[in-house]
Amino acid sequence: MERIRAPKRITLISTGGTIASRWQGTGYAADAGGDTVLASAAVPDGVAVEVVDLFNVNSSRMTSERQLTLLRTVREVLADPAVDGIVVTHGTDTLEESAFLLDLHHDDPRPVVFTGAQKPLGAADGDGPGNMYDALQVAASVSDLGVLVVFDGRVHAARGTVKTQTLAANAFADPSAGPLGRLGFGRVDIRSAPQRPAPLPVPADGALIPRVDVVMHHSDADPALFEAALAAGAQGIVLVATGAGNATPEFVDAVSAAVRRGVLVAVSTRVQAGPLAEIYTGGGAVDLVAAGAVLSGTLRAGQTRIAVLAALLSDAAPAARPDLLRRLIAAPLPQDDAADADKAA
Prior knowledge:
Pfam families: Asparaginase, Asparaginase_C. The protein is of the alpha/beta class. The protein has helices spanning about 35-40, 65-80, 95-105, 130-140, 225-230, 250-260, 285-290, 300-315, 320-330, 335-345, and strands at about 10-15, 20-25, 30, 45-55, 85-90, 110-115, 145-150, 155, 160-165, 170-175, 180-185, 185-190, 210-215, 235-240, 265-270, 295.
């Protein structure tokens, strides 16, 4: 006699975004609860869903405080061993930041899967129902992959995945790598596993949230905005440089002064894909690193800021934070790549 399998228990944490947005008379805004969003989609066979309405905001209104609330809520949900996985519905504008923050702290084999939509709730050609179905299917199927982003039939690692399309359905990609897998014909096809650093402890309740600002370099840029961030109390700054991480001698001086004051400085790039590298002097990455800045690898500005925030929220001593930041940015090499590097050495 064939045994009847118990359904996979998935918790849906609803935070708002386009997938929960309806017309407000002048534009769209998130206002639908998680039950309404879930009711718009089919649920995969063998999956039972419980809904947690955490908050309901457009993702451009996301804050570090809300992201930490989400992190702690995920931890509370996973304290129940009967839960098999979590799906988080989230607006697409800042989804990459929230997903990466959770991934830096996620220490459970059960998956946390972010999804959302590019078209509002109830749109005749909306993408939310399909994305919801796919996210539930992935959450009920995989393990030991960390935090994931499921969108438009693709499964992405949280690390490195950013919004690359403002309106198109295929909103997310890692410009420096491919997706982990795809969905289709009722299957979840995972082709690779993400490389992740050891997870951080969850910050204590009531921890003060440090200010971390982002400043962009451009042809006529000077350090005025960088210094304004310092004056506003920034404990961390991400400099979005040009090319492989280049700015000017004036920025190098400003970075050096900030680092001497204990400010954690990271350098990202406005270029879409590829790693940062110490190639140029004259204000380039060579000089910025010598001044105490940490290069962000293949992370772009939003996720680099999250890495800086996580390092500042950790219990690491101030002098140890740059090394911690390097570890958070530089995930371990895949085994094959590590072996090749050892051979080359």
